[in-house]
Amino acid sequence: MFFTEEIPLAFTTKPLKDESLVSFILRLTQLNHLKNPTQLLKYFTGSTTKPPTVKHIIRIAELTCCSTSEISQLFGFEWSTNELGLARKINNEYITKPYFISSRYLAYCPKCIEEENYLRSYWEFTFLKACPTHKIYLIDKCPLCHRALTWRRPGVDICTCGGILNTAETSTADDFSLFISSIIVQHVTQNRGITIPNTLPIDITNKLLQLNLDSLFKTLWLFGHTLSYKFKRHKKNNRPCKVINTTEILNKAHSLLSNWPDSFFNSLEYFSEELSKTKSSPLLLQMFGPIHRYITEDMDSNEFLFIQLAYERHIRRTWKLLDKQIPSSISRQLDLPFKDIQ
Q: Torsions phi, psi of 38, nearest 5?
């Protein structure tokens, strides 16, 4: 028990293994019978809207009677500057894109919080859509009011409307979502147990298993977002709409990978036909635009070689169909070896 004139904390608790920062604050809120975490945030950070950062670790530790190391473990997703620019680090792995982590996406597994009432940190990853333990999809809405969950609630398993979150109905997750989610959980927890899908070629499965987290996310983003267009035109500028829903991204990535590389070639061809061309741009940017930039700028390491070579093969075929020789300028634009590929 802990009393202070500064903050209404009658009871404190310790962070749990693999717990998220939001979860720890919500457990403190629930333990002390507060309406929501707003008052706690005010004393932790001086603001009722801004989340705590690493600079608040000492203060939170003092106010909760925890050690700084115990509180520090909650900040696995803290932004830091390194040779890659602005990135987050988890278990010594850098996550380079902010959209790979959904801080506002408070998804949860009802069965997990029924067994142990806390939010797992890895549930905040954008592409983690399923629970590998219970083989079900995560849920991000209240089972009672059906609204998207917010951190401004009385506790981990209670919605602002009073709905009990662990009573939500669940549905069995597809193999690919379980595969991706189990890879993420393994990287974070170091626990073995990958759910291997039977819909992917074994060589592609092995290539995905060899990627680090950031590279896995970039691969899914390329196939499911950058390469994917719903060719339904915007009314204002007549440009195609990109796929932004995470489930759609995973479905599209799964479709491409399950029939690799033919589906990739077909998508590249369709993309280049539909993409609005800017005549003043270099030729490859006219044809592939964001795909070319993403592959050459964000996927230039050797672990992406199978994607780079497939992209290169498509360019070779395209130039052959156009009855053109591959100009040296294209090689310089692509900055790939252009090896002979059968």
A: -55, -45
Smallest CA-to-CA distance from 44 within 27, 30, 26, 25 is with 25
Please give the Cα distance from 316 to 332 (Å, whole number): 14
Q: How far apart are CA 334 and CA 284, in angstroms?
A: 8
Question: What is the rounded distance in angstroms from the CA atom of residue 122 to the CA atom of residue 108?
Answer: 10
260: its two tokens:
């690799």
- The DSSP secondary-structure symbol of 213 reads H
**Closest C-alpha among 38, 36, 40, 35 to residue 9:** 40
CA dist list (Å): 130 to 110, 117, 195: 11, 18, 11
Measured distance CA(90)–CA(329) in Å, rounded: 40
**Which is it for the CA torsion 59, 60, 61, 65, positive or negative?**
positive
Rounded CA-CA distance 228/253 in Å is: 9
Query: Residues 24-70: pLDDT tens digits?
Result: 999 999 999 999 999 899 889 888 888 888 889 999 999 899 999 89
236-269: pLDDT as tens digits:
444 444 445 889 999 999 999 999 999 999 888 8
DSSP state letters, 24-40: HHHHHHHHTT-SSTHHH
Q: What distances in angstroms separate CA 116 from CA 3, 19, 25, 120, 196, one per listed residue?
A: 27, 11, 16, 10, 26
| Separation between Cα atoms, residue 255 and residue 249, nearest integer Å | 10
DSSP 248-314: HHHHHHHHHHHTTTHHHHHHHHHHHHHSPP-TTS-HHHHHHTHHHHHHHHHS-SGGGHHHHHHHHHH
Q: Give the separation between CA 206 and CA 119, rounded to whole angstroms.
A: 30
